[in-house]
Design a protein that fits this description.
This protein is an alpha+beta fold. About 35% of the residues lie in helices and about 20% in strands. The longest helix has 26 residues. The protein has a seven-stranded mixed beta sheet with strand order 1-5-6-10-9-8-7, with helices on both faces. Strands 2-4-3 form a three-stranded antiparallel beta sheet. The chain is built from eleven helices and ten strands. It is elongated, with a radius of gyration of 39 Å.
């Protein structure tokens, strides 16, 4: 015991007399005294040889020795600035910064914004509505009878459909025509709005179809609105979106909420009208449905169908994006594949 105390006293004197010339000497001090194989740990290991009745007193003596070494190390580190505070690390501000990856807008957002901008130049305002809709605004107000195929469960995601007929039916909207219904419900003519938004239909996901997609629909109601106004509006849109050289044709069609109705085709931009898989080798691609607003739809909202007329149209943002950027698989829009999205970096 006496020999051990004499050794510790000698160590204390050595520690007190130690002077470091730099950070390297400080590190050597730490290794020698407080390292894994340092002298402090070796001395502490001698506790096993101390008689039990003296362990408490000798333990305090060893702790004082250990504290002396630790205090000396802290003083040396402070004097030579070897301690780096993790909360405020030393930074060399003269070094160049780390490059940050530049993000980009989603291609659907790019095309949607461009579509909205084109119609805004024609005086259309943007209207939006809820994605969870009731049966009236989604179907009934749009002149879809109870037995219309679009109401079938294979096409519509129903959230609540009471079998006894008590209470409202709630569903995920199948088109943004429900936004048109809410606009006509709250506003009297003249009305000129476009309704962009996401819609849902219970369809099998494939390269050509998805269970959710995006639409931009338009509605214009005023006195003396004609089919010629509809055609010129859509001609302007197509030329602004795809260029002056694109060819356009209208085909008669049927929609419950418009009469007369027409679908609009443009010459395929991918094959330049020569025929490919996208246009089914016809040289034409259908991009939208349109027509004059059915008088019953106007009457549903108290709009005098004898005084006012209007036109409506609707198109899928995915289809327009497919033609503009030649995307051949609709699933790419929702898979978040960075390789696909990086292609649109820098596109405004």
């Amino acid at each position: 015991m006496e020999q051990l105390k004499q050794q510790i006293e000698q160590y204390k004197q050595e520690i007190a007399a130690f002077v470091a010339a730099g950070a390297e000497e400080v590190e050597q001090f730490r290794i020698k005294w407080l390292g894994t194989k340092g002298l402090v740990k070796a001395i502490m290991g001698e506790m096993k040889q101390v008689p039990n009745d003296q362990k408490k007193a000798f333990g305090q003596y060893l702790n004082e020795f250990k504290t002396l070494a630790e205090t000396k190390l802290e003083a040396l580190q402070a004097s030579h600035s070897t301690v780096k505070d993790s909360a405020s690390p030393s930074v060399d501000f003269s070094l160049p910064g780390d490059p940050m990856a530049v993000g980009s807008r989603h291609p659907l957002t790019l095309v949607r914004n461009e579509m909205v901008a084109i119609f805004k130049r024609l005086g259309f305002a943007v209207a939006e509505g809820p994605e969870i809709e009731d049966d009236w605004h989604n179907f009934g107000a749009m002149n879809l009878p109870e037995d219309h195929p679009a109401r079938d469960m294979q096409d519509t995601f129903y959230i609540r459909k009471p079998e006894d007929g008590n209470g409202p039916t709630w569903l995920l909207r199948t088109h943004t025509s429900s936004v048109q219904a809410r606009v006509m419900e709250q506003q009297k003519p003249p009305i000129r709005v476009i309704c962009p938004g996401r819609v849902y239909r219970n369809e099998t996901i494939s390269a050509r179809a998805h269970c959710f997609f995006h639409q931009v629909e338009g509605l214009y109601i005023d006195e003396n609105v004609s089919f010629a106004d509809l055609k010129q509006t859509l001609y302007f849109f197509v030329q602004e979106m795809f260029g002056k050289d694109v060819k356009v044709r209208f085909r008669p069609s049927y929609f419950p909420f418009t009469e007369p109705s027409a679908e609009m085709d443009i010459s395929c931009l991918i094959c330049e009208g020569k025929g490919c898989n996208i246009c089914k080798h016809t040289g034409w691609v259908e991009i939208l449905g349109s027509g004059m607003v059915h008088p019953k739809v106007l009457d549903n909202f108290g709009i005098d169908s004898n005084k006012y007329t209007g036109f409506a149209f609707g198109m899928g943002v995915e289809r327009i994006t497919q033609l503009k950027y030649q995307v051949n698989d609709l699933r790419l829009y929702s898979q978040n594949d960075v390789r696909f999205l990086k292609q649109f970096t820098g596109v405004v």
